[in-house]
């Protein structure tokens, strides 16, 4: 297992390097001039030229990439052209908010998705199965921003039980933090739970038809033991893969939900940086997202071995 882990970590290095080259190169194809964005449309050419020289925007592309990758090797992602703050500091401020939101949303998605998938598989073809599949289809089809707006109208405007927008630090006030995160996390979780439900149902239907499940029932094991210990554990591999990918999507794609609920998270930071031509922030954010996906894939591979002991020997 240790050898496998070291091999995967070693493979991540060239992958991250390749991603950094693509991100830095494609970034230069974005329309607009970051120096002009900083100076303003009415700035004189001398001021724009001074800004270009200050931030080395006139340097050749390979030289700029070399300086950026050299700083990256020391944990320096550069400075924001707009706020003059270090990119690492901006990410440290925004990423925890999105991580908390994505974690809560994933908890909601797994709870509802796995349970509905198991129930639908057990009562396949019944009314319960059709209801569960209809709920899953509703979650997949409903846009998260529209479901968020409806939730605000219902829980904040009409019933006034939850705050409509904003977020409070978990350290400052845990209760208020949870109240501000419940609604957006549930909105995101319900959307993802539909996908998880469909995969769980398919995997469980396939596993429940295997001989070892029939043998376990013939030996007199309790039905909940057969379902949750034997069947669900063997059906968990595709659920783990999907969960890792969906969690990565939640971390990198919550911008619509964060905008609807006015949550100052990672997604909003990236969108603002793109509109402001803030190259350093965009490059750092995209690279951070790539690293997160690589780590989640590594976690999924390790989880395979934990769930299925046969994979440990391979």
Description:
The structure is a single chain. This protein has 314 residues and is mainly α. The chain has a single domain (87-311), classed as MetI-like (MetI-like fold, Orthogonal Bundle), CATH 1.10.3720.10. The chain is 76% helix and 0% strand. The chain contains 14 helices and no strands. It has helices at 2-27, 34-39, 45-54, 61-73, 87-122, 127-141, 144-158, 174-208, 211-218, 223-234, 236-252, 255-260, 266-275, 279-307. Helix 5 runs antiparallel to helix 6, helix 8 runs antiparallel to helix 11 (236-252) and helix 11 (236-252) runs antiparallel to helix 14. The protein is globular. The model has no long low-confidence stretch (mean pLDDT 86).
List the keywords.
single chain; 314 residues; mainly alpha; MetI-like fold; 14 helices
Distance between the termini: 9 Å
Order of helices and strands: HHHHHHHHHHHHHH
CATH superfamily: MetI-like
What is the fold-level CATH name, i.e. the topology?
MetI-like fold
Largest sheet: none
Helix content class: over 70%
CATH domain class name:
Mainly Alpha
What fraction of the residues are assigned to beta strands by DSSP? under 5%
Structural class: mainly alpha
């Amino acid at each position: 297992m240790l050898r496998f882990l070291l091999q995967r970590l070693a493979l991540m290095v060239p992958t991250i390097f390749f991603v950094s080259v693509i991100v830095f190169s494609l970034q230069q194809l974005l329309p607009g001039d970051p120096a002009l964005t900083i100076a303003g449309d009415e700035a004189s050419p001398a001021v724009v030229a001074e800004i270009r020289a200050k931030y080395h925007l006139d340097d050749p592309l390979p030289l700029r990439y070399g300086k950026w990758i050299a700083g990256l090797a020391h944990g320096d992602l550069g400075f924001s052209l707009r706020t003059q703050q270090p990119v690492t500091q901006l990410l440290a401020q925004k990423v925890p908010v999105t991580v908390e939101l994505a974690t809560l949303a994933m908890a909601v998605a797994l709870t509802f998705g796995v349970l509905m998938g198991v129930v639908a598989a057990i009562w396949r073809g019944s009314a319960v199965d059709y209801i569960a599949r209809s709920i899953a289809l509703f979650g997949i089809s409903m846009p998260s921003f529209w479901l968020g707006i409806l939730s605000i109208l219902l829980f904040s405007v009409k019933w006034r039980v939850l705050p409509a927008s904003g977020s409070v630090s978990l350290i400052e006030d845990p209760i208020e933090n949870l109240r501000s995160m419940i609604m957006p996390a549930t909105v995101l979780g319900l959307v993802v739970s539909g996908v998880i439900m469909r995969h769980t149902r398919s995997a469980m239907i396939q596993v429940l038809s295997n001989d070892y499940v029939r043998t376990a029932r013939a030996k007199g094991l309790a039905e909940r033991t057969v379902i949750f210990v034997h069947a669900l554990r063997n059906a968990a591999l595709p659920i783990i893969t999907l969960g890792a990918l969906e969690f990565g999507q939640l971390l990198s794609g919550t911008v619509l939900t964060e905008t609807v609920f006015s949550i100052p998270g990672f997604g909003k930071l990236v969108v603002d940086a793109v509109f402001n031509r803030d190259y350093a922030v965009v490059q750092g954010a995209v690279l951070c997202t790539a690293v997160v996906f690589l780590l989640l894939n590594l976690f999924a591979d390790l989880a395979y071995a934990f769930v299925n002991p046969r994979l440990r020997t391979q």
